[in-house]
Design a protein that fits this description.
There is one protein chain. By secondary structure, the protein is an all-beta fold. It is built from no helices and ten strands.
């Protein structure tokens, strides 16, 4: 079955960087849009970035544009999220998720995601 396992989170000071990893299995990553969403301390979910399966469309949330970068290695079935210039507002559990398309604000709904990895940005 489809499995997604996030890792790489941790505690970082404002302005710092983290690289999150997502190991996918049970499906061909090439055929899925993939992205990251996050769930804040209050339980709210926010899309971070969604990338189409053909890499023709990559959309970042305004809050992370210029700071975060998604990448993927289909052969290794790995997805990454490079997070730079982190802010306290970035504190959340980050989830790697599949999607059919990236056209919706909640693009991950109906897809698959893992257990998430915690990112805490604090001084």
């Amino acid at each position: 079955q489809v499995q997604l396992v996030e890792s790489g989170g941790g505690l970082v000071q404002p302005g710092g960087s983290l690289r999150l990893s997502c190991a996918a299995s049970g499906f061909t990553l090439d055929y899925y849009a993939i992205g990251w969403f996050r769930q804040g301390p209050g339980g709210e979910r926010e899309g971070v970035v969604c990338s189409s399966s053909d890499n023709g469309l990559t959309e970042y949330a305004d809050s992370v544009k210029g700071r975060f970068t998604i990448s993927r290695d289909n052969a290794k079935k790995m997805v990454y999220l490079q997070m730079n210039s982190l802010k306290p507002e970035d504190t959340a559990v980050y989830y790697c998720a599949t999607a059919l398309i990236c056209d919706y604000p909640t693009w991950w709904q109906g897809g698959y995601w893992g257990q998430g990895t915690q990112v805490i940005v604090s001084s």
